[in-house]
Amino acid sequence: MKGNAALIALVLALAGAVKVPFEASMAADRPSNRLMLSVKMREQIGQGLSLALLGGVRALGADFLWVAARVAWEEHRWFTMQQNFEIVTLLQPRAIYFWDMASWHLAWNASHAAANDPAEPRMAMRVRNQRLWITAGRELLERGIQNNPDNAYLHERLGWLLHDKARDLCGAADATLKAVKLCKDWRIDYLRRLAGYWLEECAREVAPARLREAYDYWRDLWFKEHASHPPEQWDTIDKNIANRIQKLENELAVPDSERIFPKNKPSASVPPAR
Amino acid sequence: MSAPTVTSETVYFSPGRVWTIAVNTLTEMTRQKIFYFMIAFALLMIGAASFFSIFTFGVEAEYVTQLKFIKDTGLGAISVFGSIIAIVATAQLLPAELENRTIYTILAKPVHRLEFLLGKYFGAALLLVISVFLMGLLFLAVVALKERTLTRATYHETMEFAERGISKTATPEQRQKALAKAERDAAQAVAEIRKTSGYGGIVKALATVLCKLLLIAAMTLFLSTFATSMVFTVVMSAMLYFCGHLVPVAQQFYDRAESWLGKLMALVVNWVLPNLAAFDVADDLFAGLELAWLKVLKIVCYGAFYVLVTLTLAHLVFRQREI
What is the pLDDT of residues B186-221, one digit of tens each? Predict the structure, then answer.
Protein backbone atom coordinates (compact mmCIF):
# COMPACT_ATOMS: atom_id res chain seq x y z
CA MET A 1 0.00 0.00 0.00
CA LYS A 2 2.88 2.34 0.96
CA GLY A 3 4.58 1.43 -2.28
CA ASN A 4 1.46 2.36 -4.19
CA ALA A 5 1.22 5.76 -2.44
CA ALA A 6 4.86 6.42 -3.29
CA LEU A 7 4.16 5.47 -6.91
CA ILE A 8 1.20 7.87 -7.04
CA ALA A 9 3.32 10.66 -5.57
CA LEU A 10 6.03 9.93 -8.13
CA VAL A 11 3.55 10.07 -11.04
CA LEU A 12 2.20 13.39 -9.76
CA ALA A 13 5.68 14.82 -9.35
CA LEU A 14 6.73 13.73 -12.82
CA ALA A 15 3.51 15.06 -14.33
CA GLY A 16 4.12 18.41 -12.64
CA ALA A 17 7.67 18.50 -13.97
CA VAL A 18 6.38 18.03 -17.50
CA LYS A 19 3.37 20.28 -17.03
CA VAL A 20 5.07 23.48 -15.89
CA PRO A 21 7.29 24.05 -18.98
CA PHE A 22 4.48 22.81 -21.26
CA GLU A 23 2.09 25.38 -19.79
CA ALA A 24 4.71 28.11 -20.05
CA SER A 25 5.00 27.44 -23.78
CA MET A 26 1.20 27.43 -24.16
CA ALA A 27 0.87 30.71 -22.26
CA ALA A 28 3.47 32.29 -24.53
CA ASP A 29 1.30 31.30 -27.50
CA ARG A 30 -1.86 32.72 -26.01
CA PRO A 31 -1.36 35.93 -24.05
CA SER A 32 -5.10 36.38 -23.52
CA ASN A 33 -5.15 33.42 -21.20
CA ARG A 34 -3.47 35.43 -18.48
CA LEU A 35 -5.83 37.23 -16.18
CA MET A 36 -4.59 40.70 -15.34
CA LEU A 37 -5.52 41.15 -11.69
CA SER A 38 -4.52 44.37 -10.04
CA VAL A 39 -5.13 44.85 -6.32
CA LYS A 40 -7.60 47.64 -7.06
CA MET A 41 -9.57 45.40 -9.38
CA ARG A 42 -9.68 42.52 -6.97
CA GLU A 43 -11.09 44.82 -4.31
CA GLN A 44 -13.72 46.05 -6.74
CA ILE A 45 -14.97 42.77 -8.06
CA GLY A 46 -15.17 40.75 -4.85
CA GLN A 47 -17.61 37.95 -5.53
CA GLY A 48 -17.49 38.75 -9.19
CA LEU A 49 -14.11 37.08 -9.35
CA SER A 50 -15.85 33.78 -8.83
CA LEU A 51 -17.43 34.33 -12.22
CA ALA A 52 -14.02 34.54 -13.79
CA LEU A 53 -13.11 31.28 -12.22
CA LEU A 54 -16.00 29.44 -13.79
CA GLY A 55 -13.65 28.98 -16.66
CA GLY A 56 -15.72 27.71 -19.55
CA VAL A 57 -18.32 30.37 -18.96
CA ARG A 58 -15.98 33.33 -18.57
CA ALA A 59 -17.12 34.79 -21.86
CA LEU A 60 -20.75 34.02 -21.09
CA GLY A 61 -20.40 35.65 -17.65
CA ALA A 62 -18.96 38.73 -19.32
CA ASP A 63 -21.91 38.88 -21.71
CA PHE A 64 -24.49 38.63 -18.96
CA LEU A 65 -22.74 41.38 -17.00
CA TRP A 66 -22.70 43.42 -20.19
CA VAL A 67 -26.45 43.01 -20.38
CA ALA A 68 -26.68 44.07 -16.71
CA ALA A 69 -24.55 47.12 -17.58
CA ARG A 70 -26.95 47.95 -20.37
CA VAL A 71 -29.89 47.83 -17.94
CA ALA A 72 -27.95 50.04 -15.52
CA TRP A 73 -27.25 52.47 -18.37
CA GLU A 74 -30.94 52.66 -19.27
CA GLU A 75 -31.80 53.34 -15.64
CA HIS A 76 -28.96 55.86 -15.22
CA ARG A 77 -27.32 53.81 -12.45
CA TRP A 78 -23.87 54.93 -13.44
CA PHE A 79 -21.87 53.38 -10.61
CA THR A 80 -23.44 49.95 -11.15
CA MET A 81 -22.73 50.32 -14.85
CA GLN A 82 -19.12 51.21 -14.13
CA GLN A 83 -18.67 48.26 -11.79
CA ASN A 84 -20.07 45.89 -14.39
CA PHE A 85 -17.75 47.33 -17.01
CA GLU A 86 -14.78 46.74 -14.74
CA ILE A 87 -15.66 43.07 -14.34
CA VAL A 88 -16.57 42.58 -17.98
CA THR A 89 -13.26 43.97 -19.17
CA LEU A 90 -11.44 41.91 -16.57
CA LEU A 91 -13.14 38.73 -17.74
CA GLN A 92 -12.51 39.40 -21.42
CA PRO A 93 -9.56 41.74 -21.65
CA ARG A 94 -9.02 40.96 -25.35
CA ALA A 95 -12.52 41.94 -26.45
CA ILE A 96 -11.88 45.38 -27.97
CA TYR A 97 -15.58 46.16 -28.24
CA PHE A 98 -15.96 46.06 -24.45
CA TRP A 99 -13.12 48.50 -23.81
CA ASP A 100 -14.32 50.86 -26.50
CA MET A 101 -18.00 50.94 -25.53
CA ALA A 102 -17.36 50.94 -21.78
CA SER A 103 -15.01 53.91 -21.95
CA TRP A 104 -17.43 55.74 -24.24
CA HIS A 105 -20.28 55.25 -21.78
CA LEU A 106 -18.18 56.51 -18.89
CA ALA A 107 -16.50 59.46 -20.57
CA TRP A 108 -19.42 60.61 -22.69
CA ASN A 109 -22.73 59.42 -21.25
CA ALA A 110 -22.02 59.29 -17.52
CA SER A 111 -20.03 62.52 -17.64
CA HIS A 112 -22.81 64.27 -19.56
CA ALA A 113 -25.36 63.04 -17.02
CA ALA A 114 -23.16 64.34 -14.18
CA ALA A 115 -22.83 67.74 -15.83
CA ASN A 116 -26.62 67.98 -16.11
CA ASP A 117 -27.52 66.30 -12.84
CA PRO A 118 -30.74 67.95 -11.58
CA ALA A 119 -30.11 66.58 -8.08
CA GLU A 120 -26.87 68.55 -7.77
CA PRO A 121 -27.49 72.30 -7.56
CA ARG A 122 -23.80 73.26 -7.23
CA MET A 123 -22.17 73.87 -10.59
CA ALA A 124 -18.67 73.27 -9.17
CA MET A 125 -19.69 69.81 -8.01
CA ARG A 126 -21.26 69.02 -11.35
CA VAL A 127 -18.07 69.96 -13.15
CA ARG A 128 -16.02 67.95 -10.69
CA ASN A 129 -18.23 64.88 -11.14
CA GLN A 130 -18.13 65.31 -14.89
CA ARG A 131 -14.32 65.27 -14.79
CA LEU A 132 -14.32 62.22 -12.56
CA TRP A 133 -16.35 60.27 -15.10
CA ILE A 134 -14.12 61.42 -17.93
CA THR A 135 -11.09 60.30 -15.94
CA ALA A 136 -12.78 56.96 -15.25
CA GLY A 137 -13.36 56.48 -18.98
CA ARG A 138 -9.80 57.48 -19.77
CA GLU A 139 -8.32 55.13 -17.15
CA LEU A 140 -10.43 52.25 -18.43
CA LEU A 141 -9.35 52.86 -22.00
CA GLU A 142 -5.71 53.14 -20.97
CA ARG A 143 -6.05 49.80 -19.22
CA GLY A 144 -7.53 48.42 -22.43
CA ILE A 145 -4.45 49.65 -24.27
CA GLN A 146 -2.20 48.01 -21.68
CA ASN A 147 -3.99 44.74 -22.38
CA ASN A 148 -4.01 45.23 -26.15
CA PRO A 149 -0.98 47.40 -26.88
CA ASP A 150 -1.01 46.63 -30.61
CA ASN A 151 -4.60 47.62 -31.24
CA ALA A 152 -4.75 50.79 -33.31
CA TYR A 153 -8.46 51.32 -32.73
CA LEU A 154 -8.11 51.70 -28.96
CA HIS A 155 -5.33 54.27 -29.45
CA GLU A 156 -7.61 56.14 -31.83
CA ARG A 157 -10.47 56.04 -29.33
CA LEU A 158 -8.14 57.37 -26.64
CA GLY A 159 -7.26 60.18 -29.00
CA TRP A 160 -10.93 61.09 -29.42
CA LEU A 161 -11.54 60.93 -25.68
CA LEU A 162 -8.56 63.15 -24.91
CA HIS A 163 -9.50 65.58 -27.65
CA ASP A 164 -13.24 65.85 -27.15
CA LYS A 165 -13.68 65.24 -23.44
CA ALA A 166 -10.41 65.77 -21.55
CA ARG A 167 -9.24 68.58 -23.87
CA ASP A 168 -5.72 67.20 -23.71
CA LEU A 169 -4.88 68.20 -27.27
CA CYS A 170 -1.27 67.07 -27.29
CA GLY A 171 -2.21 63.78 -25.63
CA ALA A 172 -4.85 63.29 -28.34
CA ALA A 173 -2.28 63.96 -31.07
CA ASP A 174 0.21 61.53 -29.55
CA ALA A 175 -2.41 58.79 -29.13
CA THR A 176 -3.50 59.20 -32.76
CA LEU A 177 0.11 59.16 -33.95
CA LYS A 178 0.48 55.82 -32.17
CA ALA A 179 -2.70 54.61 -33.87
CA VAL A 180 -1.21 55.61 -37.23
CA LYS A 181 1.89 53.53 -36.51
CA LEU A 182 -0.20 50.48 -35.57
CA CYS A 183 -2.99 50.74 -38.14
CA LYS A 184 -2.84 48.20 -40.94
CA ASP A 185 -6.29 48.53 -42.50
CA TRP A 186 -8.29 50.98 -44.62
CA ARG A 187 -8.54 53.47 -41.75
CA ILE A 188 -4.94 54.48 -42.20
CA ASP A 189 -5.65 57.37 -44.61
CA TYR A 190 -8.20 58.93 -42.30
CA LEU A 191 -6.00 58.41 -39.24
CA ARG A 192 -2.99 60.04 -40.92
CA ARG A 193 -4.97 63.20 -41.56
CA LEU A 194 -6.56 63.20 -38.13
CA ALA A 195 -3.15 62.93 -36.47
CA GLY A 196 -1.90 65.84 -38.56
CA TYR A 197 -4.82 68.11 -37.68
CA TRP A 198 -4.55 67.32 -33.98
CA LEU A 199 -0.79 67.73 -33.94
CA GLU A 200 -1.23 71.16 -35.46
CA GLU A 201 -4.00 71.98 -33.01
CA CYS A 202 -1.78 70.92 -30.11
CA ALA A 203 1.02 73.14 -31.43
CA ARG A 204 -1.25 76.16 -31.94
CA GLU A 205 -3.09 75.98 -28.63
CA VAL A 206 -0.75 74.32 -26.15
CA ALA A 207 2.81 73.71 -27.33
CA PRO A 208 4.03 76.18 -29.99
CA ALA A 209 7.36 74.37 -30.05
CA ARG A 210 5.63 71.47 -31.84
CA LEU A 211 4.61 73.59 -34.83
CA ARG A 212 7.72 72.53 -36.70
CA GLU A 213 6.89 68.90 -35.87
CA ALA A 214 3.42 69.44 -37.34
CA TYR A 215 4.94 70.92 -40.50
CA ASP A 216 7.37 68.02 -40.84
CA TYR A 217 4.50 65.60 -40.34
CA TRP A 218 2.37 67.16 -43.11
CA ARG A 219 5.37 67.35 -45.38
CA ASP A 220 6.17 63.72 -44.79
CA LEU A 221 2.52 62.79 -45.45
CA TRP A 222 2.58 64.84 -48.66
CA PHE A 223 5.49 62.82 -49.97
CA LYS A 224 3.95 59.54 -48.82
CA GLU A 225 0.70 60.34 -50.61
CA HIS A 226 2.52 61.10 -53.84
CA ALA A 227 4.71 58.05 -53.53
CA SER A 228 1.66 55.81 -53.09
CA HIS A 229 -0.27 57.23 -56.06
CA PRO A 230 0.65 57.16 -59.77
CA PRO A 231 1.24 60.68 -61.24
CA GLU A 232 -2.09 60.63 -63.09
CA GLN A 233 -3.89 60.33 -59.73
CA TRP A 234 -1.98 63.12 -57.95
CA ASP A 235 -4.90 65.43 -58.50
CA THR A 236 -7.05 63.24 -56.28
CA ILE A 237 -4.79 63.73 -53.26
CA ASP A 238 -6.45 65.69 -50.50
CA LYS A 239 -5.90 69.38 -51.19
CA ASN A 240 -6.14 70.13 -47.48
CA ILE A 241 -2.69 68.68 -46.98
CA ALA A 242 -1.29 71.18 -49.46
CA ASN A 243 -3.19 74.01 -47.74
CA ARG A 244 -1.79 73.05 -44.32
CA ILE A 245 1.73 72.87 -45.67
CA GLN A 246 1.47 76.22 -47.43
CA LYS A 247 0.10 77.87 -44.32
CA LEU A 248 2.78 76.39 -42.06
CA GLU A 249 5.56 77.25 -44.50
CA ASN A 250 4.48 80.86 -44.29
CA GLU A 251 4.07 80.85 -40.53
CA LEU A 252 7.41 79.18 -39.91
CA ALA A 253 9.11 81.29 -42.54
CA VAL A 254 10.59 78.25 -44.22
CA PRO A 255 13.29 79.28 -46.71
CA ASP A 256 12.24 79.07 -50.34
CA SER A 257 14.80 76.40 -51.09
CA GLU A 258 13.26 74.05 -48.51
CA ARG A 259 9.63 74.73 -49.33
CA ILE A 260 7.31 72.38 -51.13
CA PHE A 261 5.38 75.41 -52.28
CA PRO A 262 7.88 78.20 -53.02
CA LYS A 263 6.43 81.68 -52.71
CA ASN A 264 6.70 82.33 -56.40
CA LYS A 265 4.92 79.06 -57.31
CA PRO A 266 2.10 78.72 -54.76
CA SER A 267 0.00 76.35 -56.88
CA ALA A 268 2.59 73.64 -57.33
CA SER A 269 0.98 70.24 -57.16
CA VAL A 270 3.88 68.03 -58.13
CA PRO A 271 6.29 67.42 -55.26
CA PRO A 272 9.92 68.37 -55.84
CA ALA A 273 12.65 65.86 -55.19
CA ARG A 274 13.34 65.37 -51.51
CA MET B 1 -8.19 -34.24 -15.46
CA SER B 2 -8.30 -30.83 -13.83
CA ALA B 3 -9.33 -27.67 -15.70
CA PRO B 4 -6.51 -25.24 -16.52
CA THR B 5 -6.37 -22.34 -14.06
CA VAL B 6 -6.62 -18.86 -15.54
CA THR B 7 -4.54 -16.31 -13.69
CA SER B 8 -4.13 -12.65 -14.39
CA GLU B 9 -0.59 -13.35 -15.56
CA THR B 10 -1.79 -15.56 -18.40
CA VAL B 11 -4.50 -13.14 -19.63
CA TYR B 12 -3.11 -10.46 -21.86
CA PHE B 13 -4.49 -6.99 -22.23
CA SER B 14 -7.21 -6.95 -24.86
CA PRO B 15 -8.45 -3.80 -26.62
CA GLY B 16 -11.44 -5.88 -27.75
CA ARG B 17 -12.58 -6.38 -24.18
CA VAL B 18 -12.06 -2.68 -23.49
CA TRP B 19 -14.24 -1.85 -26.48
CA THR B 20 -16.96 -4.28 -25.37
CA ILE B 21 -17.08 -2.72 -21.92
CA ALA B 22 -17.04 0.77 -23.45
CA VAL B 23 -19.99 0.07 -25.74
CA ASN B 24 -21.87 -1.54 -22.89
CA THR B 25 -21.18 1.47 -20.67
CA LEU B 26 -22.40 3.82 -23.38
CA THR B 27 -25.61 1.81 -23.81
CA GLU B 28 -26.20 1.92 -20.06
CA MET B 29 -25.66 5.65 -19.92
CA THR B 30 -27.87 6.45 -22.86
CA ARG B 31 -30.74 4.73 -21.06
CA GLN B 32 -30.68 7.37 -18.33
CA LYS B 33 -33.07 10.26 -18.78
CA ILE B 34 -30.85 12.84 -17.05
CA PHE B 35 -28.53 13.05 -20.06
CA TYR B 36 -31.37 13.75 -22.40
CA PHE B 37 -32.49 16.53 -20.08
CA MET B 38 -29.00 17.96 -20.00
CA ILE B 39 -28.60 17.84 -23.75
CA ALA B 40 -32.10 19.26 -24.22
CA PHE B 41 -31.27 22.19 -21.90
CA ALA B 42 -27.99 22.80 -23.70
CA LEU B 43 -29.69 22.71 -27.10
CA LEU B 44 -32.37 25.08 -25.84
CA MET B 45 -29.74 27.52 -24.59
CA ILE B 46 -27.76 27.36 -27.81
CA GLY B 47 -30.93 27.83 -29.83
CA ALA B 48 -31.98 30.80 -27.72
CA ALA B 49 -28.58 32.43 -28.16
CA SER B 50 -29.72 34.45 -31.16
CA PHE B 51 -32.09 36.41 -28.92
CA PHE B 52 -29.10 37.98 -27.19
CA SER B 53 -28.69 40.28 -30.14
CA ILE B 54 -31.19 42.69 -28.57
CA PHE B 55 -28.68 43.46 -25.84
CA THR B 56 -26.15 45.25 -28.00
CA PHE B 57 -25.59 48.88 -27.08
CA GLY B 58 -25.63 50.48 -30.46
CA VAL B 59 -25.67 49.92 -34.17
CA GLU B 60 -21.93 50.35 -34.54
CA ALA B 61 -20.43 47.00 -35.54
CA GLU B 62 -23.64 45.39 -34.35
CA TYR B 63 -22.99 42.17 -36.20
CA VAL B 64 -19.73 41.70 -34.31
CA THR B 65 -21.55 41.87 -30.98
CA GLN B 66 -24.46 39.75 -32.10
CA LEU B 67 -22.20 37.01 -33.35
CA LYS B 68 -20.03 37.34 -30.25
CA PHE B 69 -23.03 36.84 -27.96
CA ILE B 70 -24.15 33.80 -29.91
CA LYS B 71 -20.68 32.27 -29.86
CA ASP B 72 -20.20 33.00 -26.15
CA THR B 73 -23.54 31.47 -25.25
CA GLY B 74 -23.07 28.45 -27.48
CA LEU B 75 -19.57 27.65 -26.28
CA GLY B 76 -20.53 28.42 -22.67
CA ALA B 77 -23.55 26.10 -22.83
CA ILE B 78 -21.54 23.30 -24.39
CA SER B 79 -18.80 23.73 -21.80
CA VAL B 80 -21.12 23.87 -18.78
CA PHE B 81 -23.60 21.16 -19.75
CA GLY B 82 -20.79 19.04 -21.13
CA SER B 83 -18.95 19.33 -17.81
CA ILE B 84 -22.08 18.35 -15.88
CA ILE B 85 -22.58 15.34 -18.13
CA ALA B 86 -18.89 14.41 -17.81
CA ILE B 87 -18.99 14.56 -14.01
CA VAL B 88 -22.40 12.97 -13.40
CA ALA B 89 -21.98 10.25 -16.00
CA THR B 90 -18.51 9.21 -14.88
CA ALA B 91 -19.12 9.56 -11.16
CA GLN B 92 -21.73 6.82 -11.16
CA LEU B 93 -19.82 4.30 -13.25
CA LEU B 94 -17.95 2.47 -10.49
CA PRO B 95 -20.41 3.03 -7.59
CA ALA B 96 -23.26 1.70 -9.74
CA GLU B 97 -21.25 -1.40 -10.63
CA LEU B 98 -20.45 -1.94 -6.96
CA GLU B 99 -24.01 -1.32 -5.82
CA ASN B 100 -25.51 -3.62 -8.43
CA ARG B 101 -22.72 -6.13 -7.77
CA THR B 102 -22.16 -6.49 -11.50
CA ILE B 103 -18.48 -5.72 -11.02
CA TYR B 104 -18.01 -9.12 -9.33
CA THR B 105 -19.39 -10.91 -12.34
CA ILE B 106 -17.17 -8.98 -14.71
CA LEU B 107 -13.96 -9.21 -12.74
CA ALA B 108 -14.54 -12.89 -12.04
CA LYS B 109 -14.04 -13.40 -15.76
CA PRO B 110 -10.66 -13.03 -17.39
CA VAL B 111 -10.85 -9.27 -17.45
CA HIS B 112 -8.07 -7.05 -16.16
CA ARG B 113 -9.01 -4.27 -13.79
CA LEU B 114 -7.23 -1.91 -16.18
CA GLU B 115 -9.42 -3.13 -19.05
CA PHE B 116 -12.48 -2.62 -16.93
CA LEU B 117 -11.38 0.89 -15.96
CA LEU B 118 -10.46 1.87 -19.52
CA GLY B 119 -13.69 0.40 -20.85
CA LYS B 120 -15.68 2.50 -18.41
CA TYR B 121 -13.68 5.61 -19.33
CA PHE B 122 -14.04 5.13 -23.08
CA GLY B 123 -17.76 4.54 -22.65
CA ALA B 124 -18.07 7.92 -20.93
CA ALA B 125 -15.77 9.45 -23.55
CA LEU B 126 -18.01 8.18 -26.37
CA LEU B 127 -21.01 9.74 -24.68
CA LEU B 128 -19.15 13.06 -24.45
CA VAL B 129 -18.09 12.91 -28.10
CA ILE B 130 -21.68 12.30 -29.17
CA SER B 131 -23.00 15.08 -26.90
CA VAL B 132 -20.45 17.63 -28.13
CA PHE B 133 -21.11 16.61 -31.72
CA LEU B 134 -24.86 17.15 -31.36
CA MET B 135 -24.50 20.43 -29.48
CA GLY B 136 -21.77 21.62 -31.85
CA LEU B 137 -23.92 20.86 -34.86
CA LEU B 138 -26.79 22.96 -33.56
CA PHE B 139 -24.38 25.69 -32.51
CA LEU B 140 -22.93 25.92 -36.02
CA ALA B 141 -26.45 25.94 -37.47
CA VAL B 142 -27.45 28.86 -35.21
CA VAL B 143 -24.34 30.82 -36.20
CA ALA B 144 -24.99 30.10 -39.88
CA LEU B 145 -28.59 31.21 -39.57
CA LYS B 146 -27.59 34.44 -37.83
CA GLU B 147 -24.89 35.06 -40.40
CA ARG B 148 -27.43 34.63 -43.19
CA THR B 149 -29.83 37.08 -41.55
CA LEU B 150 -27.09 39.63 -40.93
CA THR B 151 -25.56 39.41 -44.40
CA ARG B 152 -28.95 39.84 -46.06
CA ALA B 153 -29.89 42.77 -43.84
CA THR B 154 -26.50 44.44 -44.34
CA TYR B 155 -26.64 44.00 -48.12
CA HIS B 156 -30.14 45.46 -48.41
CA GLU B 157 -29.37 48.33 -46.03
CA THR B 158 -26.23 49.28 -47.95
CA MET B 159 -28.01 49.21 -51.31
CA GLU B 160 -31.04 51.12 -50.02
CA PHE B 161 -28.78 53.74 -48.47
CA ALA B 162 -26.97 54.13 -51.78
CA GLU B 163 -30.27 54.43 -53.67
CA ARG B 164 -31.42 57.19 -51.34
CA GLY B 165 -28.13 59.00 -51.74
CA ILE B 166 -28.36 59.20 -55.54
CA SER B 167 -29.48 62.60 -56.71
CA LYS B 168 -32.67 62.78 -58.77
CA THR B 169 -30.78 64.71 -61.40
CA ALA B 170 -28.03 62.11 -61.68
CA THR B 171 -27.31 60.74 -65.13
CA PRO B 172 -27.71 56.97 -65.76
CA GLU B 173 -23.91 56.66 -65.80
CA GLN B 174 -23.59 58.41 -62.44
CA ARG B 175 -26.36 56.26 -61.03
CA GLN B 176 -24.75 53.08 -62.29
CA LYS B 177 -21.38 54.14 -60.89
CA ALA B 178 -22.89 54.87 -57.46
CA LEU B 179 -24.71 51.55 -57.40
CA ALA B 180 -21.59 49.68 -58.46
CA LYS B 181 -19.71 51.32 -55.59
CA ALA B 182 -22.51 50.40 -53.17
CA GLU B 183 -22.38 46.84 -54.47
CA ARG B 184 -18.66 46.70 -53.74
CA ASP B 185 -19.19 48.17 -50.25
CA ALA B 186 -21.99 45.67 -49.53
CA ALA B 187 -19.83 42.78 -50.70
CA GLN B 188 -17.03 43.98 -48.44
CA ALA B 189 -19.42 44.23 -45.46
CA VAL B 190 -20.81 40.76 -46.16
CA ALA B 191 -17.28 39.36 -46.38
CA GLU B 192 -16.50 41.03 -43.05
CA ILE B 193 -19.54 39.40 -41.42
CA ARG B 194 -18.56 36.00 -42.82
CA LYS B 195 -15.08 36.48 -41.45
CA THR B 196 -16.51 37.36 -38.03
CA SER B 197 -18.59 34.16 -38.00
CA GLY B 198 -15.32 32.21 -38.01
CA TYR B 199 -16.50 28.63 -38.43
CA GLY B 200 -12.92 27.36 -38.35
CA GLY B 201 -12.41 29.03 -34.98
CA ILE B 202 -15.63 27.52 -33.66
CA VAL B 203 -14.59 24.02 -34.68
CA LYS B 204 -11.21 24.54 -33.01
CA ALA B 205 -12.92 25.82 -29.85
CA LEU B 206 -15.22 22.78 -29.86
CA ALA B 207 -12.17 20.52 -30.13
CA THR B 208 -10.57 22.14 -27.08
CA VAL B 209 -13.86 22.00 -25.12
CA LEU B 210 -14.12 18.27 -25.90
CA CYS B 211 -10.55 17.80 -24.64
CA LYS B 212 -11.47 19.54 -21.42
CA LEU B 213 -14.54 17.36 -20.96
CA LEU B 214 -12.52 14.20 -21.55
CA LEU B 215 -10.04 15.34 -18.92
CA ILE B 216 -12.83 16.13 -16.46
CA ALA B 217 -14.25 12.63 -17.05
CA ALA B 218 -10.82 11.10 -16.37
CA MET B 219 -10.45 13.14 -13.17
CA THR B 220 -13.90 12.04 -12.00
CA LEU B 221 -13.10 8.41 -12.75
CA PHE B 222 -9.92 8.73 -10.72
CA LEU B 223 -11.88 10.11 -7.76
CA SER B 224 -14.47 7.34 -8.02
CA THR B 225 -11.75 4.67 -7.74
CA PHE B 226 -11.34 5.44 -4.06
CA ALA B 227 -14.62 7.21 -3.22
CA THR B 228 -17.24 5.34 -1.30
CA SER B 229 -20.25 7.22 -2.62
CA MET B 230 -21.34 8.89 -5.83
CA VAL B 231 -22.22 12.14 -4.06
CA PHE B 232 -18.67 12.43 -2.74
CA THR B 233 -17.29 11.89 -6.23
CA VAL B 234 -19.60 14.50 -7.77
CA VAL B 235 -18.81 17.11 -5.11
CA MET B 236 -15.07 16.48 -5.26
CA SER B 237 -15.09 16.56 -9.06
CA ALA B 238 -16.90 19.89 -9.01
CA MET B 239 -14.27 21.20 -6.59
CA LEU B 240 -11.49 19.96 -8.84
CA TYR B 241 -13.23 21.61 -11.79
CA PHE B 242 -13.18 25.00 -10.09
CA CYS B 243 -9.66 24.51 -8.74
CA GLY B 244 -8.50 23.55 -12.23
CA HIS B 245 -9.75 26.88 -13.51
CA LEU B 246 -7.97 28.59 -10.63
CA VAL B 247 -4.53 27.39 -11.72
CA PRO B 248 -3.63 30.61 -13.66
CA VAL B 249 -4.60 32.61 -10.56
CA ALA B 250 -2.44 30.30 -8.43
CA GLN B 251 0.44 30.95 -10.84
CA GLN B 252 0.02 34.68 -10.40
CA PHE B 253 -0.38 34.29 -6.67
CA TYR B 254 2.86 32.32 -6.50
CA ASP B 255 4.72 35.20 -8.18
CA ARG B 256 3.25 37.81 -5.87
CA ALA B 257 2.78 36.01 -2.52
CA GLU B 258 5.09 37.14 0.26
CA SER B 259 4.44 34.44 2.87
CA TRP B 260 6.13 31.07 2.35
CA LEU B 261 2.89 29.25 3.21
CA GLY B 262 1.02 31.07 0.47
CA LYS B 263 3.81 30.34 -2.00
CA LEU B 264 3.82 26.68 -1.01
CA MET B 265 0.06 26.31 -1.46
CA ALA B 266 0.15 28.03 -4.83
CA LEU B 267 3.08 25.82 -5.86
CA VAL B 268 1.24 22.63 -4.89
CA VAL B 269 -1.91 23.68 -6.76
CA ASN B 270 0.12 24.64 -9.81
CA TRP B 271 2.19 21.45 -9.71
CA VAL B 272 -0.58 18.93 -9.12
CA LEU B 273 -3.68 20.24 -10.90
CA PRO B 274 -4.17 20.53 -14.64
CA ASN B 275 -4.83 24.03 -15.88
CA LEU B 276 -8.40 23.78 -17.17
CA ALA B 277 -8.36 27.44 -18.20
CA ALA B 278 -5.86 26.48 -20.90
CA PHE B 279 -8.72 24.85 -22.81
CA ASP B 280 -10.79 28.02 -23.01
CA VAL B 281 -10.00 29.62 -26.33
CA ALA B 282 -13.11 31.81 -26.53
CA ASP B 283 -11.14 34.95 -25.64
CA ASP B 284 -8.68 34.34 -28.46
CA LEU B 285 -11.52 33.97 -30.94
CA PHE B 286 -13.27 37.17 -29.94
CA ALA B 287 -10.04 39.10 -29.79
CA GLY B 288 -9.67 38.26 -33.46
CA LEU B 289 -6.46 36.36 -32.76
CA GLU B 290 -5.67 33.60 -35.13
CA LEU B 291 -5.98 30.27 -33.40
CA ALA B 292 -3.56 28.20 -35.41
CA TRP B 293 -4.00 24.45 -35.60
CA LEU B 294 -0.57 24.10 -33.99
CA LYS B 295 -1.84 25.89 -30.90
CA VAL B 296 -4.93 23.67 -30.86
CA LEU B 297 -2.68 20.64 -31.23
CA LYS B 298 -0.67 21.80 -28.23
CA ILE B 299 -3.85 22.08 -26.18
CA VAL B 300 -4.99 18.63 -27.35
CA CYS B 301 -1.58 17.17 -26.44
CA TYR B 302 -1.79 18.83 -23.05
CA GLY B 303 -5.24 17.30 -22.51
CA ALA B 304 -4.13 13.86 -23.72
CA PHE B 305 -1.10 14.00 -21.44
CA TYR B 306 -3.26 14.75 -18.40
CA VAL B 307 -5.84 12.13 -19.33
CA LEU B 308 -2.98 9.61 -19.43
CA VAL B 309 -1.62 10.79 -16.07
CA THR B 310 -5.07 10.71 -14.45
CA LEU B 311 -5.92 7.27 -15.82
CA THR B 312 -2.53 5.98 -14.60
CA LEU B 313 -3.34 7.29 -11.13
CA ALA B 314 -6.83 5.76 -11.32
CA HIS B 315 -5.31 2.42 -12.29
CA LEU B 316 -2.78 2.56 -9.45
CA VAL B 317 -5.57 3.09 -6.95
CA PHE B 318 -8.09 0.72 -8.49
CA ARG B 319 -5.73 -2.24 -8.89
CA GLN B 320 -5.33 -2.42 -5.10
CA ARG B 321 -8.85 -1.54 -4.12
CA GLU B 322 -10.68 -4.19 -2.14
CA ILE B 323 -14.00 -4.88 -3.74
Answer: 888 888 888 777 888 889 999 999 999 999 999 999
pLDDT the model gives residue B57: 52
User: pLDDT class for B1, splitting at 50, 70, 90?
Assistant: very low
Cβ contact (<8 Å) for B286 and A94? yes
Q: Are B283 and A92 inside 8 Å of each other by CB?
A: yes
Q: Enumerate residues 6+ apart whose C-beta is below 8 A from A227.
A: none
- What pLDDT was estimated at residue A143? 94
Domain layout of chain B by residue ranges: 15-318
Q: Using CB atoms, which residue from B281, B286, B305 is nearest to A18?
A: B305
Per-window interface: A 40-99 vs B, CB < 8 A:
53-60, 62-63, 66-67, 70, 73, 92-97
d(CA B101, CA B90): 17
Residues across chain B: 323
User: In whole angstroms, what is the distance from residue A119 CA to residue A129 CA?
Assistant: 12
End-to-end CA separation in angstroms for chain B: 32
**Any chain B CB within 8 A of the CB of A247?**
no
Q: Decide if B72 and A60 are in contact by the 8 Å CB cutoff.
A: yes
CB-nearest to B295 from A12, A30, A57 is A30
In chain B, the largest separation of any two C-alpha atoms, in whole Å, equals: 111
The string of DSSP letters for B165-225 reads HS-TT--HHHHHHHHHHHHHHHHHHHHHHHHHH-HHHHHHHHHHHHHHHHHHHHHHHHHHH
Q: From the list B65, B212, B252, which residue is nearest A37 (CB)?
A: B252
Q: Which of A60, A65, A91, A147 to mutate to test the interface with B (most CBs of B within 10 A)?
A: A60
Using the Cα atoms of residue A126, residue A132, residue A135 and residue A141 in order, give the sign of their dihedral. negative
Concatenate the DSSP letters of all residues of B12-46 into one string. PP-HHHHHHHHHHHHHHHHT-HHHHHHHHHHHHHH
Mutate: best of B55, B62, B70, B204, partner A, most A CBs <10 A: B55
Which one has a higher pLDDT value, A29 or B106?
A: B106
pLDDT digits 0-9 by tens, B255-309: 888 888 888 888 888 888 898 888 888 767 766 667 788 888 999 999 999 999 9
pLDDT in tens, B14-23: 889 999 999 9
Is there a contact between A111 and A134 (Cβ–Cβ < 8 Å)? yes
